[in-house]
Amino acid sequence: MKPNEIKTKFDELFNSITPEEQIEHEAQLLAFRFLSIIDAEMEAQNISKKALAERVGTSQSFITQLFRGDRKPNWTILAKMQKALGLQFTVSTHDEMERWVIEAISQAHKVWIKEGCYSINESRKLIGNFEVTSNPNDYPLAS
């Protein structure tokens, strides 16, 4: 099959999805977002699925089904998992996250101005968003 034919087949497949199937797909993606955070924390704490199941009061097979995508977690199981792992989930929209990032950058910018981090001398120049120094010894790569 040629690349154009493959693209056409994928386009046909994705264009034929019903609104209900799209919602189901988005629900599964939301579940995987939470579970990926849980999985990363389990790995960081060296906790098995069996141990997590014991901590949340469910079976190892149920936990496995969640991580395989055979079942979706409900709010109660997510709350139990976050407690068992010492996590705290925060739910926000993409727009909220953008506003928080912009505010954080703005606050940092104010501090950098106050602290003189933008001061330029003859060996330091700003080109676009990058600082360029004519003397590489001014900024050692490692200490």
Structure description:
The chain is mainly alpha-helical and 143 residues long. The chain has helices at residues 3-15, 19-44, 49-56, 60-68, 75-85, 94-115, and strands at 124-127, 130-133. The protein has a two-stranded antiparallel sheet with strand order 1-2. The model has no long low-confidence stretch (mean pLDDT 83).
Q: Key features?
A:
143 residues, single chain, mainly alpha, 62% helix, 2 strands, 2 domains
Question: In summary, what is this structure?
Answer:
The protein is mainly alpha-helical and 143 residues long. It has 6 helices and 2 strands. The chain folds into 2 domains: 3-85, Orthogonal Bundle (434 Repressor (Amino-terminal Domain)); 94-138, no CATH class.
**End-to-end C-alpha gap:** 55 Å
Q: SSE order, as H and E?
A: HHHHHHEE
Classify the fold: give the CATH topology of the largest domain: 434 Repressor (Amino-terminal Domain)
CATH architecture of the largest domain: Orthogonal Bundle
- CATH class of the largest domain reads Mainly Alpha
Spatial shape: flat
Number of domains: 2
Structural class: mainly alpha
Total number of helical segments?
6
Strand order of the largest sheet: 1-2
Unreliable spans:
none
Q: What level of helicity do the residues show? A: 55-70%
Main beta sheet strand tally, sense and closure: 2 strands, antiparallel
Number of E strands: 2
Radius of gyration of CA atoms, rounded to a whole number: 24 Å
CATH superfamily of the largest domain: lambda repressor-like DNA-binding domains
Beta strand %: 5-15%
